[in-house]
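Assemble and predict.
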Amino acid sequence: MLRGAYIDELQLGDEFEGYFVLKDAQSKMSSAGKPFLSATISDCSGDMDAKVWDYSGPVSTEDIGKVIAIMGTVTEFKGALQVTINRIRLADEHDNYNREKLVPSAPIDVDDAMNELKEAVASLSDPDYRRICETMLQRHEESLREIPAAKVIHHSFLHGLLMHTLNMVRLADYLSDLYADTLDRSLLIAGTCLHDIAKNQEFVVSELGLVTAYSVKGKLLGHLVMGAQEVAEVAAELGVPEEKSVLLQHMILSHHGKPETGAAVVPMCAESELLSYIDMIDSRMEIYHETMNGLQVGEFSSRIFALDKPVYRHS
Amino acid sequence: MLRGAYIDELQLGDEFEGYFVLKDAQSKMSSAGKPFLSATISDCSGDMDAKVWDYSGPVSTEDIGKVIAIMGTVTEFKGALQVTINRIRLADEHDNYNREKLVPSAPIDVDDAMNELKEAVASLSDPDYRRICETMLQRHEESLREIPAAKVIHHSFLHGLLMHTLNMVRLADYLSDLYADTLDRSLLIAGTCLHDIAKNQEFVVSELGLVTAYSVKGKLLGHLVMGAQEVAEVAAELGVPEEKSVLLQHMILSHHGKPETGAAVVPMCAESELLSYIDMIDSRMEIYHETMNGLQVGEFSSRIFALDKPVYRHS
Amino acid sequence: MLRGAYIDELQLGDEFEGYFVLKDAQSKMSSAGKPFLSATISDCSGDMDAKVWDYSGPVSTEDIGKVIAIMGTVTEFKGALQVTINRIRLADEHDNYNREKLVPSAPIDVDDAMNELKEAVASLSDPDYRRICETMLQRHEESLREIPAAKVIHHSFLHGLLMHTLNMVRLADYLSDLYADTLDRSLLIAGTCLHDIAKNQEFVVSELGLVTAYSVKGKLLGHLVMGAQEVAEVAAELGVPEEKSVLLQHMILSHHGKPETGAAVVPMCAESELLSYIDMIDSRMEIYHETMNGLQVGEFSSRIFALDKPVYRHS
Amino acid sequence: MLRGAYIDELQLGDEFEGYFVLKDAQSKMSSAGKPFLSATISDCSGDMDAKVWDYSGPVSTEDIGKVIAIMGTVTEFKGALQVTINRIRLADEHDNYNREKLVPSAPIDVDDAMNELKEAVASLSDPDYRRICETMLQRHEESLREIPAAKVIHHSFLHGLLMHTLNMVRLADYLSDLYADTLDRSLLIAGTCLHDIAKNQEFVVSELGLVTAYSVKGKLLGHLVMGAQEVAEVAAELGVPEEKSVLLQHMILSHHGKPETGAAVVPMCAESELLSYIDMIDSRMEIYHETMNGLQVGEFSSRIFALDKPVYRHS
Amino acid sequence: MLRGAYIDELQLGDEFEGYFVLKDAQSKMSSAGKPFLSATISDCSGDMDAKVWDYSGPVSTEDIGKVIAIMGTVTEFKGALQVTINRIRLADEHDNYNREKLVPSAPIDVDDAMNELKEAVASLSDPDYRRICETMLQRHEESLREIPAAKVIHHSFLHGLLMHTLNMVRLADYLSDLYADTLDRSLLIAGTCLHDIAKNQEFVVSELGLVTAYSVKGKLLGHLVMGAQEVAEVAAELGVPEEKSVLLQHMILSHHGKPETGAAVVPMCAESELLSYIDMIDSRMEIYHETMNGLQVGEFSSRIFALDKPVYRHS
Amino acid sequence: MLRGAYIDELQLGDEFEGYFVLKDAQSKMSSAGKPFLSATISDCSGDMDAKVWDYSGPVSTEDIGKVIAIMGTVTEFKGALQVTINRIRLADEHDNYNREKLVPSAPIDVDDAMNELKEAVASLSDPDYRRICETMLQRHEESLREIPAAKVIHHSFLHGLLMHTLNMVRLADYLSDLYADTLDRSLLIAGTCLHDIAKNQEFVVSELGLVTAYSVKGKLLGHLVMGAQEVAEVAAELGVPEEKSVLLQHMILSHHGKPETGAAVVPMCAESELLSYIDMIDSRMEIYHETMNGLQVGEFSSRIFALDKPVYRHS
């Protein structure tokens, strides 16, 4: 009996037990008139079809997205592996599984990344922008370490927002050097660091840490407005001069670049203009990265929704 | 010697003195090589060309927009009346002129209008929305009574914002009755009442009360975001439940209807959708009103910038 | 045996007979190899799944949309009620059913609404516009009392066009008072009253009174052009001065507001501009009303086609 | 003394008299304090600057566009020829000038062109479309022979509409042969022949035959809707079957191709789709022709308004 | 036993054998638990459903698009004909079938069409453009005779590109006569002849001659750039003056008319502007032709993807 | 007598001589009836108004843009400095002036920049991309060292293209490290290095080294297509595998990002997507840099054409 195996390690004939995510589930009837559950189970390594014969519940469609504990055997159907599940139940608070094993997560060391981000903030020469960032990071550190950067488009895995933010801060740092006579490094890095900071209020995050929906507040206000509002509040508490507060709010409100892509106002200073490109670059590079992982060399993808075009993987 | 005459009352040969706005001014040289000032003077009734012969200052181009005291004679040039100014000086704090005589103002009784607006707020059945409105009106009553609703597009005269807001509240009231089973009257009227409340922070207002420019804060944040932010703050202070605060912020943030016309988020409930139409109707009707005033019956205007088309005045 | 029950009144175990609409129907084969009909029946109160076992016709897919007479029993399947039909046949001209029971209809009293519309017309101070409206209403009263305002988007139920037109006329009346110095009340109300008058020529209406398709003429010319054409004809017959005829045609031709939303010409006077907003308001408020009826408090809808966005139902 | 010379024939020192168009005129004051008229005179061959010294009227700016009789001498100023006018007066009904000499006109023989158009109509195999065309041509022959096709964009000269229509009919004839199994020749040619027939109602035409403005009716309804309306009327009078009337109206209503370029409905049959391209081709080729006439070989034009781009003249 | 029958000739009860295209294939399981193949077979006359009972391979989904040899019987299912296949195998190089019988092909005589195209080229008065065309046609004659003009949109059958090119050259010839004083006939016809010449490099063509996909080069560069590049190369080899080479490249690069429809540069001379309309006309007329073939008189199509609207077939 | 002074060094009363650019020139007449030349002179430090009294040539409007030798005195007019020119003539080949003194040039050391670019190329690990770059740089080194990057929008000074290209290569280098698992460094840097390489063929460059117009070839083909074409040629000569040649051409053809901003094809691999952002960043940062140089702290610019919005300069 295998314990704790990853889905992409399972082989024909294996008997195993472990925790998985119930990715899909439908109650069906066999031609012999018997009920069975047709399911898909997943972990961070992939997914596999599964059947629970002679089963009419209680696990059902309503439990999609939850963690299950199963005992099963790997069989074959139409040339593909599938699992015949012998025992199945929902996991509860007494079960001791590793979330990182079950869902995909960013290829980063979270502590290192968080530290690097804090160091970047500590390096800001402008004390006002630095203090706002420090306060905001303190308030939101817990969620910033954990949540994805999006529901599906890009960095939609655990710690995705931290990875996305840190990549952007690195690039912002390089650019503030390359265009040193045009940019205020403190403003650029502060804005980059905080641009998505209100995503924790915008998302509904599942028990497994993934984004499953947008909150009412998130849909009616958006993370740009919520983020700017909190910056305004913190800046006022810290006694930061109003122009700096306004500029930092402006960075957050305009970071989607154009009204038709969601900017509340258009970027009107060099730093906010640049922030919108940095965000574009990091999100697009991640989309290319994820898409090309699913392609053969020399192959085009189908149309990618977020890009509105297919993508090519060259050698 | 006439005193206090309106420009549209002046007739050929009149000698007069009074206060006017220096609407335009250029220092020129006559063909005989003598300096003179070619100016335009205005009051709320219209404007007229004027000349100050043998004059090289101190009143000059830099004083455009200021109030001047003049003594002059009405003459004729190429078939039109013009003023030959005999004495000219800038007005200062010791001069005692009536601002309402000098610049256009809304055809409303300000006290009546303000009272009607307050009564509308007092009639809201929802105490939370009512208290937010009351607090916001108290805070901004002074500017709301005075400022125009825009720099040029519509209601760009004294008390214009109050006139615009009140018209919209009346219409909102009617519509909340017509669509009573779809709309929350309190939310609709509260949102309508507060939709432009942050315009006082968005405008730079001249000593005469007109909008001459936009503030830095106004350009970088916009009156939608500033208005929503203050509502959030007031709601928190009053202990209003978060959903109501969020809905009222959403009303303000979305009242421009579409991202490309400046909405920070798109309207997603019936009240916010409707607010954007009410705003459109009142601003457009005012534009038609002002445009048609300058047209003959049976005449088309030239292209109106805000409408991107000409307008027809029928009988 | 229940007779004449509404679908939303049926309970488990009820035996009933009555007329319903065959909303959907598919011929299938059971796993035992026996043919059966899987159907959906509907009336104005809702719909329910139904099965006719051991049945191979003659009622089939081709009869979708027709009225059927059935005798059946209410059973349960997977936790939901469904009907086991014992007898089924198509209704014919000898059957005596009530159309209003079978399909949804506007929540208005048709006679009252029609009278109110006629009174509005009678109140027009301009005799030319009044006579055109009276003539047009006489010609089209029958269809105006009955047809929906659309195939699916809004007011797609019996008497929908009358409800839509009357709502708009009420609002036009209010607005012609609010903006009395900008608007010609007679022109505004006349244009509002007649704006969709040619929809009866644009639609193909089923025997049950619903719109099932667009006519050839409707697609090739559109109800704007057809409506304007008939107004031109009636105005000429009545000897109305050309400018009034042209203005009223212009109201109808431009009431979709912008070329890209179907306006044949853009609105160029205050009344036509306003008509396009009034139409927008009434159609949108109905869409919100219908959408929110299908939502829980606190829930967002999926994307609504006509709005290109989801809608939120707040408390 | 030269009589009747064209402007492009005048040479330095010539004394001449004749009729010209007063293309521009401004009353000015010389540095010596004397009034003079600075004007531009034109005929179909070009234009030239002119001065009337010591002149203060009665010919003035208000007479721009009218015909004047002048006596003058050709002089030189800054290297260019100009006219010193000795006598000037407005022409009146007793003057006997040739309009074709004064304004540009299409390079066609009007009688030949009209006959060719009638022959094309006579060749239609469908008697219904043929009779509608014949009736419409009879009604409008006078204006069709004379008016331009536009105010400025293309074919804005005398007989321009006839030239444009005939070119298009020739091309339609060729295409109905090339795509014989897709097109109804009678419908295509009839629609082409009548597509702009209501332009005479859309234009305000000056005494010289050029388009100086659009009529109120033209702006509020447009020549598409007016043309379709008259076709509907004629078809009804002639007892033509409704589908043919509708198709021919559809041709006219949709010939601008897309809503954003002015189509009242979009083309939905092969003939209407094609008509929009034929119209595009003939108008664009004329624009290129006129533009290239003003260019050297190897030269680019400045941006052409109707094309939104510059044009190149190659060898 | 019928041999070589077309699909649209088969009748109930026919026993037949022959070659067909395997248009679709899915391995399924009957309710009795036996495997069967559910397929669609096609030839140039149409397609028909087919079943191979008790069959588990080797012909399968992966063979879709290949030629199969079958022996079968025509049966009936739910009122439609279908084939019960008794024997099935993939065709190989020893099989001797006629490709033209299996896939649709253009209704032209290929030799005649090719000759007409060559004669058009031979008629060019400009020797430079003529020699470039002759060289390009020699290089690409084989593919130009064979390949479709597109994957699906229009002329997607054998010899489609030749048919499309020839139609366009005919129309270009007519137009260079109609607008003789605006157009350079040699440039227009040369550009028309070569506009799609690089499509053979853009397509992946199946063994049956149809376009099944786009090549990597085709997607990354496009046939416009590839065509222009080869023209530049050939022109250089032939010693053609640079301006002519540039103009001919410009024709090819701009023939999609607008950037948003794929033009690499916008047309800037009369010939390139016209080429884009000629291409539009021929492709659209073919789309209408193919669409109307599938419609009844009086019927509207569903929305046609390439037109973004439905199409009407009138009598 | 000052010699060689810069314009921004001139002070009231200075007598000076030197070479300047004739930036503007108009022949005028004084009120006393005497001709004079009203001019503007410029060098790389700025410009100043100038007058040549009693002067009627030969220097005139036609010499705008040329270098002039002048002797003059600095006077004052309406509070601003202006030059009274005593002697003026066009410079010719015998004059020995320093071009860099006369026109603005990039703030870089050209040799250093060129070397850094060559080193970046030398560092490419892929020998094929490296050899193509080396060959292209050799061919174009002379123009790449000298020409601006644009006519007006950004980097429109001497050596501007080199500065722009080098900045972009630096950023590309950084990004190929940041996204090392997504990007092919050699392809990204090669494409960046060559993206504008054909601008020398696109521009008409004045004797002073500035771009004064676009070439015929440049307008009809564009620098994207010309650059890709030369890369194809060089790659073929060097025997580079086709896929690499195609990818590098694709980089150049797509670097404007979207069709509507001039891309011949859309970017379809990570490197081409990124190149379009790198180009955007460097051009936009330069626009902000140049714009802010002309602003006070706290001031907004007027609308910047290339950005379609104003820009703010904060402290």
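The first strand of chain A starts at residue 2 and ends at 3.
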